[in-house]
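In the lab's daily routine, each protein ends up as an entry in a very long ledger. A line of letters takes care of the sequence, but it says nothing directly about the fold. The fold becomes a row of whole numbers, each drawn from a learned catalogue of backbone shapes. The protein below has been through that process, and both of its lines are reproduced in full:
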Amino acid sequence: MSCYVGKEGVVKIGSDAVGEVTNFSLEVTAETIECTAMGDTYRGYESSFINWSGSVDVHWDPDDTGQTALVIGSKVQLALYPEGDEAGDTEYAGQAIVTSFTRSAAFDGLVEASIAFQGDGELTTGSAA
């Protein structure tokens, strides 16, 4: 069994790595359509459209080109690497729309940001080059 360490993860916008990433998430879901008819005992469903979305949490850095590329409403080429971005590592990639960019600060902590995105089209699963 293989184990992967989260600290090796990488997020890229185009070819720029997003700096100061502390966490990212990716959710892929399939919509369903009910196809139950009179006389059926159990409800039936068919798979429909596939959707993907997620978020990236960072230590906010206004000078980081990866973070500054994440402008609300913009479409970006997003790539997520859960095990690192060395050749052969798993890559999830696709075009995404930036849907929110939340910054937060506490008197006893760092300034942080959470960026949410919505996939726009296909999410590909491949390997880093």
